[in-house]
Amino acid sequence: MSEEKVTCNVCHAHCALSEGQTGRCMARWNNGGKIKAKNYGVITSLALDPIEKKPLARFFPGTRILSVGSYGCNLQCPFCQNYEISRSDGEAIHIQSETMSPEELCSLAAELKNNGRGNIGVAFTYNEPLVGWEFVRDTAKLVHAAGMKNVLVSNGNASQEILAEILPYIDAMNIDLKSFDGNCYKDYLKGDLDMVKAFISTASRAEHCDLEITSLIVPGHNDSPEEMRDLSSWIAALDDGRGIEIPLHITRYFPRYRESAPATDIALIHRLAAIAKENLHHVYIGNC
Ligand code: SF4
Q: Model's pTM, two decimal places?
Protein backbone atom coordinates (compact mmCIF):
# COMPACT_ATOMS: atom_id res chain seq x y z
CA MET A 1 0.00 0.00 0.00
CA SER A 2 1.40 3.40 -1.02
CA GLU A 3 2.08 5.86 1.81
CA GLU A 4 2.30 8.73 -0.64
CA LYS A 5 -0.44 11.32 -0.43
CA VAL A 6 -2.29 12.33 -3.56
CA THR A 7 -3.77 15.83 -3.94
CA CYS A 8 -7.26 16.31 -5.35
CA ASN A 9 -7.43 18.97 -8.08
CA VAL A 10 -11.16 19.68 -7.93
CA CYS A 11 -11.41 22.60 -5.52
CA HIS A 12 -9.76 25.20 -3.29
CA ALA A 13 -9.39 22.72 -0.42
CA HIS A 14 -6.60 20.86 -2.29
CA CYS A 15 -7.04 17.84 -0.02
CA ALA A 16 -3.84 15.75 0.18
CA LEU A 17 -5.16 12.25 0.83
CA SER A 18 -3.43 9.07 2.04
CA GLU A 19 -4.53 5.70 0.68
CA GLY A 20 -8.16 5.11 1.68
CA GLN A 21 -8.66 8.63 3.03
CA THR A 22 -11.71 10.71 2.05
CA GLY A 23 -11.58 14.48 1.40
CA ARG A 24 -13.41 17.31 3.10
CA CYS A 25 -16.34 17.03 0.71
CA MET A 26 -16.87 13.41 1.87
CA ALA A 27 -17.35 12.40 -1.77
CA ARG A 28 -13.79 11.96 -3.13
CA TRP A 29 -11.11 9.62 -1.88
CA ASN A 30 -7.69 8.15 -2.55
CA ASN A 31 -8.34 4.71 -3.96
CA GLY A 32 -5.22 2.85 -5.06
CA GLY A 33 -3.20 6.06 -5.46
CA LYS A 34 -5.84 7.79 -7.58
CA ILE A 35 -8.45 10.34 -6.49
CA LYS A 36 -11.90 8.99 -7.37
CA ALA A 37 -15.51 9.93 -6.71
CA LYS A 38 -17.06 7.65 -4.08
CA ASN A 39 -20.47 9.02 -4.96
CA TYR A 40 -20.38 8.05 -8.66
CA GLY A 41 -23.93 7.07 -9.62
CA VAL A 42 -25.23 7.28 -6.04
CA ILE A 43 -28.55 9.08 -6.33
CA THR A 44 -30.09 10.61 -3.20
CA SER A 45 -32.64 12.90 -4.85
CA LEU A 46 -34.55 12.67 -8.09
CA ALA A 47 -37.45 14.92 -9.14
CA LEU A 48 -39.06 16.38 -12.24
CA ASP A 49 -38.86 20.05 -11.32
CA PRO A 50 -40.02 23.24 -13.04
CA ILE A 51 -36.93 24.82 -14.62
CA GLU A 52 -37.70 28.00 -12.65
CA LYS A 53 -36.93 26.09 -9.44
CA LYS A 54 -33.21 25.67 -10.29
CA PRO A 55 -33.53 28.75 -10.45
CA LEU A 56 -33.32 29.56 -14.16
CA ALA A 57 -35.61 32.36 -15.30
CA ARG A 58 -34.56 32.72 -18.93
CA PHE A 59 -33.72 29.20 -20.10
CA PHE A 60 -36.71 27.35 -21.62
CA PRO A 61 -39.23 28.96 -19.23
CA GLY A 62 -42.32 26.88 -18.51
CA THR A 63 -40.58 23.55 -19.02
CA ARG A 64 -39.54 20.89 -16.53
CA ILE A 65 -36.23 19.13 -16.00
CA LEU A 66 -35.24 15.83 -14.39
CA SER A 67 -33.21 17.00 -11.40
CA VAL A 68 -30.70 14.68 -9.79
CA GLY A 69 -28.51 14.90 -6.69
CA SER A 70 -25.95 12.72 -4.99
CA TYR A 71 -24.13 13.47 -1.72
CA GLY A 72 -21.18 15.62 -0.62
CA CYS A 73 -20.18 19.28 -0.79
CA ASN A 74 -16.90 21.17 -0.60
CA LEU A 75 -18.32 24.17 1.29
CA GLN A 76 -19.51 24.26 4.88
CA CYS A 77 -22.31 26.83 4.80
CA PRO A 78 -23.84 26.98 8.30
CA PHE A 79 -27.28 27.64 6.73
CA CYS A 80 -27.21 24.74 4.26
CA GLN A 81 -30.73 23.93 3.05
CA ASN A 82 -29.71 20.42 1.92
CA TYR A 83 -27.37 19.44 4.74
CA GLU A 84 -28.75 15.90 4.97
CA ILE A 85 -27.08 15.13 1.64
CA SER A 86 -24.35 17.78 1.41
CA ARG A 87 -22.81 17.01 4.80
CA SER A 88 -23.09 13.27 4.44
CA ASP A 89 -20.53 10.61 3.67
CA GLY A 90 -23.12 8.53 1.84
CA GLU A 91 -23.02 5.77 4.46
CA ALA A 92 -23.87 7.22 7.86
CA ILE A 93 -26.94 8.92 6.48
CA HIS A 94 -30.60 8.44 6.99
CA ILE A 95 -31.63 9.10 3.46
CA GLN A 96 -32.75 6.83 0.70
CA SER A 97 -30.22 6.33 -2.03
CA GLU A 98 -29.97 4.17 -5.09
CA THR A 99 -27.37 3.64 -7.76
CA MET A 100 -27.99 4.57 -11.38
CA SER A 101 -25.65 4.41 -14.34
CA PRO A 102 -25.42 7.39 -16.71
CA GLU A 103 -27.29 5.23 -19.27
CA GLU A 104 -30.15 4.54 -16.84
CA LEU A 105 -30.47 8.21 -15.90
CA CYS A 106 -30.43 9.28 -19.54
CA SER A 107 -33.08 6.68 -20.41
CA LEU A 108 -35.32 7.96 -17.62
CA ALA A 109 -34.87 11.54 -18.86
CA ALA A 110 -35.81 10.48 -22.41
CA GLU A 111 -38.87 8.62 -21.12
CA LEU A 112 -40.00 11.75 -19.25
CA LYS A 113 -39.46 13.78 -22.41
CA ASN A 114 -41.36 11.44 -24.69
CA ASN A 115 -44.35 10.62 -22.48
CA GLY A 116 -45.68 14.17 -22.39
CA ARG A 117 -44.27 15.14 -18.97
CA GLY A 118 -42.45 18.16 -20.45
CA ASN A 119 -38.91 17.15 -19.54
CA ILE A 120 -36.10 18.88 -21.45
CA GLY A 121 -33.10 17.01 -20.00
CA VAL A 122 -31.13 16.57 -16.78
CA ALA A 123 -30.18 19.09 -14.07
CA PHE A 124 -27.28 18.22 -11.76
CA THR A 125 -28.20 19.85 -8.48
CA TYR A 126 -29.15 19.47 -4.75
CA ASN A 127 -25.68 18.58 -3.41
CA GLU A 128 -22.55 20.07 -5.05
CA PRO A 129 -22.44 18.18 -8.38
CA LEU A 130 -18.79 18.90 -9.14
CA VAL A 131 -17.40 16.87 -6.22
CA GLY A 132 -18.61 14.03 -8.46
CA TRP A 133 -17.90 15.70 -11.80
CA GLU A 134 -17.13 12.43 -13.59
CA PHE A 135 -20.77 11.34 -13.30
CA VAL A 136 -21.90 14.77 -14.55
CA ARG A 137 -19.59 14.50 -17.57
CA ASP A 138 -20.50 10.91 -18.44
CA THR A 139 -24.24 11.49 -18.12
CA ALA A 140 -24.22 14.87 -19.82
CA LYS A 141 -22.53 13.40 -22.90
CA LEU A 142 -25.34 10.84 -23.25
CA VAL A 143 -28.05 13.43 -22.61
CA HIS A 144 -26.66 15.59 -25.43
CA ALA A 145 -26.41 12.60 -27.76
CA ALA A 146 -30.11 11.95 -27.03
CA GLY A 147 -31.00 15.51 -28.07
CA MET A 148 -31.73 16.87 -24.58
CA LYS A 149 -30.32 19.68 -22.42
CA ASN A 150 -27.98 19.67 -19.42
CA VAL A 151 -28.18 22.12 -16.53
CA LEU A 152 -25.61 22.54 -13.75
CA VAL A 153 -26.43 24.11 -10.38
CA SER A 154 -23.16 24.64 -8.55
CA ASN A 155 -21.39 26.68 -5.89
CA GLY A 156 -18.66 27.41 -8.43
CA ASN A 157 -15.86 26.38 -6.05
CA ALA A 158 -14.14 24.26 -8.67
CA SER A 159 -10.90 24.58 -10.59
CA GLN A 160 -10.65 25.71 -14.19
CA GLU A 161 -9.41 22.22 -15.03
CA ILE A 162 -12.67 20.63 -13.86
CA LEU A 163 -14.79 23.35 -15.46
CA ALA A 164 -13.09 22.59 -18.79
CA GLU A 165 -14.07 18.91 -18.41
CA ILE A 166 -17.79 19.59 -18.14
CA LEU A 167 -18.44 22.96 -19.80
CA PRO A 168 -18.72 21.60 -23.38
CA TYR A 169 -21.77 19.54 -22.32
CA ILE A 170 -23.60 22.09 -20.16
CA ASP A 171 -26.33 24.23 -21.76
CA ALA A 172 -27.21 26.36 -18.75
CA MET A 173 -25.83 26.99 -15.28
CA ASN A 174 -26.96 28.64 -12.13
CA ILE A 175 -23.89 29.46 -10.04
CA ASP A 176 -24.00 30.73 -6.46
CA LEU A 177 -22.23 33.95 -5.67
CA LYS A 178 -22.81 33.75 -1.95
CA SER A 179 -20.93 36.89 -1.00
CA PHE A 180 -18.60 39.47 -2.53
CA ASP A 181 -16.33 39.48 0.51
CA GLY A 182 -13.34 37.13 0.41
CA ASN A 183 -13.27 36.84 4.21
CA CYS A 184 -16.93 35.81 4.32
CA TYR A 185 -16.20 33.06 1.81
CA LYS A 186 -13.07 31.95 3.68
CA ASP A 187 -14.24 32.16 7.29
CA TYR A 188 -18.03 31.66 7.15
CA LEU A 189 -18.49 29.36 4.14
CA LYS A 190 -15.02 27.73 4.00
CA GLY A 191 -14.80 28.59 0.31
CA ASP A 192 -12.75 30.76 -2.02
CA LEU A 193 -14.25 33.87 -3.63
CA ASP A 194 -11.49 34.17 -6.23
CA MET A 195 -12.11 30.61 -7.44
CA VAL A 196 -15.86 31.30 -7.74
CA LYS A 197 -15.26 34.54 -9.64
CA ALA A 198 -12.90 32.77 -12.05
CA PHE A 199 -15.47 29.98 -12.54
CA ILE A 200 -18.27 32.46 -13.28
CA SER A 201 -16.04 34.53 -15.54
CA THR A 202 -15.04 31.53 -17.68
CA ALA A 203 -18.63 30.24 -17.82
CA SER A 204 -19.84 33.67 -18.94
CA ARG A 205 -17.56 33.46 -22.00
CA ALA A 206 -19.01 30.13 -23.17
CA GLU A 207 -21.42 31.18 -25.89
CA HIS A 208 -23.30 27.87 -25.88
CA CYS A 209 -24.08 28.06 -22.15
CA ASP A 210 -26.69 30.33 -20.53
CA LEU A 211 -25.55 31.64 -17.16
CA GLU A 212 -27.60 32.86 -14.22
CA ILE A 213 -26.32 33.70 -10.73
CA THR A 214 -27.86 33.34 -7.29
CA SER A 215 -27.06 35.26 -4.10
CA LEU A 216 -28.72 34.08 -0.91
CA ILE A 217 -28.88 36.99 1.53
CA VAL A 218 -28.04 36.04 5.12
CA PRO A 219 -28.54 38.78 7.75
CA GLY A 220 -25.27 40.13 9.10
CA HIS A 221 -23.10 38.35 6.56
CA ASN A 222 -23.76 39.63 3.03
CA ASP A 223 -26.68 42.03 3.37
CA SER A 224 -25.09 45.47 2.99
CA PRO A 225 -26.10 47.81 0.13
CA GLU A 226 -22.40 48.40 -0.63
CA GLU A 227 -21.74 44.69 -1.11
CA MET A 228 -24.74 44.29 -3.42
CA ARG A 229 -23.59 47.33 -5.40
CA ASP A 230 -20.11 45.81 -5.85
CA LEU A 231 -21.44 42.32 -6.62
CA SER A 232 -23.98 43.46 -9.23
CA SER A 233 -21.50 45.85 -10.81
CA TRP A 234 -18.96 43.01 -11.19
CA ILE A 235 -21.61 40.81 -12.86
CA ALA A 236 -22.55 43.67 -15.20
CA ALA A 237 -18.90 44.11 -16.19
CA LEU A 238 -18.73 40.47 -17.34
CA ASP A 239 -21.01 41.46 -20.19
CA ASP A 240 -18.22 43.50 -21.77
CA GLY A 241 -20.48 44.80 -24.54
CA ARG A 242 -21.69 41.35 -25.63
CA GLY A 243 -25.28 41.88 -24.52
CA ILE A 244 -25.42 38.63 -22.53
CA GLU A 245 -27.23 40.38 -19.64
CA ILE A 246 -26.58 37.79 -16.91
CA PRO A 247 -29.61 37.42 -14.62
CA LEU A 248 -29.20 37.65 -10.83
CA HIS A 249 -31.50 35.88 -8.36
CA ILE A 250 -31.53 37.46 -4.90
CA THR A 251 -33.04 34.99 -2.48
CA ARG A 252 -34.20 35.04 1.09
CA TYR A 253 -32.51 32.88 3.73
CA PHE A 254 -34.38 30.85 6.35
CA PRO A 255 -32.78 29.43 9.53
CA ARG A 256 -31.53 25.92 8.90
CA TYR A 257 -28.78 23.51 9.98
CA ARG A 258 -26.34 25.47 12.23
CA GLU A 259 -27.53 29.03 11.47
CA SER A 260 -30.22 30.41 13.75
CA ALA A 261 -30.37 34.07 12.69
CA PRO A 262 -33.95 35.07 11.83
CA ALA A 263 -35.12 34.83 8.22
CA THR A 264 -34.08 37.71 5.97
CA ASP A 265 -36.44 40.66 6.07
CA ILE A 266 -38.48 40.74 2.85
CA ALA A 267 -38.20 44.54 2.64
CA LEU A 268 -34.40 44.19 2.68
CA ILE A 269 -34.52 41.73 -0.23
CA HIS A 270 -36.53 44.28 -2.23
CA ARG A 271 -34.09 47.08 -1.32
CA LEU A 272 -31.10 44.98 -2.43
CA ALA A 273 -32.90 44.02 -5.65
CA ALA A 274 -33.46 47.71 -6.39
CA ILE A 275 -29.73 48.33 -5.94
CA ALA A 276 -28.84 45.40 -8.22
CA LYS A 277 -31.20 46.81 -10.85
CA GLU A 278 -29.00 49.91 -11.04
CA ASN A 279 -26.45 47.64 -12.74
CA LEU A 280 -28.39 44.67 -14.17
CA HIS A 281 -31.38 44.25 -16.48
CA HIS A 282 -32.66 40.97 -15.05
CA VAL A 283 -32.99 40.76 -11.27
CA TYR A 284 -35.32 38.23 -9.63
CA ILE A 285 -36.23 37.76 -5.98
CA GLY A 286 -36.80 34.35 -4.48
CA ASN A 287 -38.21 32.68 -1.32
CA CYS A 288 -40.30 35.78 -0.56
S1 SF4 B 1 -13.35 18.10 -4.14
FE2 SF4 B 1 -13.34 17.19 -2.11
S3 SF4 B 1 -11.50 15.94 -1.98
FE4 SF4 B 1 -11.26 17.33 -3.74
S5 SF4 B 1 -10.12 19.10 -2.94
FE6 SF4 B 1 -12.31 19.59 -2.82
S7 SF4 B 1 -12.97 18.95 -0.75
FE8 SF4 B 1 -10.98 17.97 -1.15
A: 0.95
Answer whether residue 44 is part of any domain: yes
Question: Domain span at residue 187?
Answer: 39-286
The full length of the chain comes to 288
Q: How far is CA 88 from CA 13, 24, 82, 232, in A?
A: 17, 11, 10, 33
From the centroid of its chain, how far is CA 245?
20
Determine if ligand 1 sits within 6 Å of the CB of residue 276.
Answer: no
Interval 9-63: pLDDT, tens: 999 999 999 999 999 999 999 999 999 999 999 999 999 999 999 999 999 999 9
Q: How far is CA 162 from CA 13, 47, 168, 204, 258, in A?
A: 14, 26, 11, 16, 30
Identify whether 26 is part of a domain. Answer: no
On whether the CB atoms of residues 22 and 38 are closer than 8 A, the answer is: yes
Note the pLDDT tens digit of each residue in 93-149: 445 678 999 999 999 999 999 998 889 999 999 999 999 999 999 999 999 999 999
Count of domains for the chain: 1
Domain assignment of residue 223, yes or no: yes
The ligand 1 atom nearest the CA atom of 29? 3
Beta bridge pairs of residue 286: 251
Determine whether the shortest distance from the Cβ of 38 to ligand 1 is under 6 A.
Answer: no
Domain with residue 100: its CATH number is: 3.20.20.70
Is residue 130 within 6 Å of ligand 1 at its C-beta? Answer: no
CA 226 to chain centre: 25
Asked, for residue 93, whether it belongs to a domain, the answer is yes
